[in-house]
Design goal:
The structure is a homotetramer.
Chain A lengths: L5 H24 L9 H26 L9 H22 L6 H23 L6 H26 L13
Helix pairs in contact in A: 1-2, 2-3, 2-5, 3-4, 4-5
Chain lengths: ~170, ~170, ~170, ~170
């Protein structure tokens, strides 16, 4: 017995969410050289990327913990691992807004959209059997949308090539 | 002009937060071999770790974007980079709950508590000058607390050594 | 005095290189579902990616340790950090050869070629002043070449579209 | 046919190894604030860490590609994934030598020694069946030794506490 009541734990728990949401928001808004025109879009994408990286890492591990039919989850695990890695690095690039390299961000977002799409499609096939695959598929799908949306927004307002729209289907 | 009203953007924006919060929660609760006794504590720590990794990555970049006195932010940038890396990998280990290796999780949480403490102390010194350092210091401090709390909880309930408490000051 | 002679240290040191080279080579050759047609190309790219990720991490840190003119190294540090992250994740994807997703690997290699190119160009501008920038520029350049070469090889032999060549200039 | 002779490919291949070895060495030796007293030890550990991270990533993937008895490789895959992540982040911390935080480096090396030990022990159990597990076990074992050795060296010469020796069994 460590002397912590449930009430205390609930109190400790609640602020976390608020801090986390505010943290990303505040950091981007206080960035001395942030892309303040698109802060809301970056924030959307970043939240989706972090949720997706977490869901994929957890889904791969949950698959490995399934007592039966692990054979059928091989591809799900590998796409989870790829997607987690790609989302994590894409988030890091989006957070770096000092001298942000537009071409690289486009290319990395494009790779990320593909990773999310592949992982969503694979996880969907196991969604009926495993809740973790169902939730992961939804999270990947949402992340794919947010990254694709951001890709469109920053392409549409790009100085170098304002007419192009490289958003991926 | 890309024909998206603010209303649409607000609609797109709101679900993200809800999905992100629910995602981690749902993934842990649906994990076939999760440590369900401590789900709330893991969730707290994971949310704090992800916020801290993001804040540190963003703070390092914001420091590099400051127009003046970059010289004084060298150590802040390096502690930010270390803390971001350590928090990210600690989160990954905590998410893997299949055959979770207790000793390794303890050691990694211990390293993470130190990384957060060092980064909080360094960022606090620049909190009066830079809002990103102030927010980052608070986020590191919160993460240090949540990791330390989890360290205490899983030590207190450990099968191998139920009496030990390796929580770090 | 810890009682280790220089001779012992030299003995300890030498095998590392041999083990490291052999490790990647052996792992790929013993992979049950590896792309054995292109093992040499993957190995080249993987070695270059790991060297590049290490050089960029070290160059960013060395820049932060320079006693003078840190102002002029801002962009070098941010491109170093981006390039290190992108190379690390690209290497992870290339190492995963079970059900390797061709489209994703192409897109990630493409992003990596851009990251290396940007970082090589930026580091070259400081090569006359700082040896770490000079070495990092060479390493990035080499990595760009190896990733671009692999991109060409796997495109040329791709089942889905054998005639296409998406190698980047 | 892409018009590249085997001779050209061999020429392209050979320099990689040389560059990679020289890269880490040169970067540490040209670091303006590197721990030049221990460069050889850092170099040993860094080479071992990168080989180990690569071997573990590849071994996890090779396990997932094994046609039979995947069930028995669950724990091998999860320890591989943990070890790859911990080795990668430990290498990043060791490469950052500007204002290197001694306590954090000790704690992270300690966690890494545990990760390598766990993974070596698990992979050894499958070494008779799978070459990738055998090679991975050797690589983890070597990395554990090099990190433990570095831990002893930097503890022995630490300014703050020159008598302590925190090297792990």
């Amino acid at each position: 017995m460590r002397g912590r009541s449930n009430a205390t734990m609930a109190q400790l728990r609640r602020p976390t969410y608020r801090i986390q949401m505010k943290t990303l928001d505040l950091m981007l808004r206080h960035h001395p050289r942030g892309d303040h025109q698109h802060t809301a879009d970056y924030l959307e994408a970043l939240n989706a990327l972090e949720a997706c990286a977490a869901a994929c890492t957890s889904c791969a591990d949950a698959c490995l913990g399934e007592p039966e039919n692990l054979d059928q989850l091989r591809r799900c695990i590998t796409t989870d691992l790829d997607c987690a890695d790609v989302c994590s690095v894409t988030a890091r690039l989006l957070m770096r807004q000092t001298d942000a390299p537009n071409d690289l961000i486009h290319a990395q977002l494009h790779a990320c959209v593909l990773a999310c799409q592949l992982c969503a499609e694979e996880c969907e096939q196991h969604a009926g059997m495993h809740d973790h695959c169902r939730i992961c598929a939804e999270t990947c799908h949402h992340c794919q949308e947010r990254c694709n949306f951001l890709l469109g927004e920053i392409s549409a307002s790009g100085v170098a090539d304002p007419e192009s729209d490289t958003a991926v289907g």
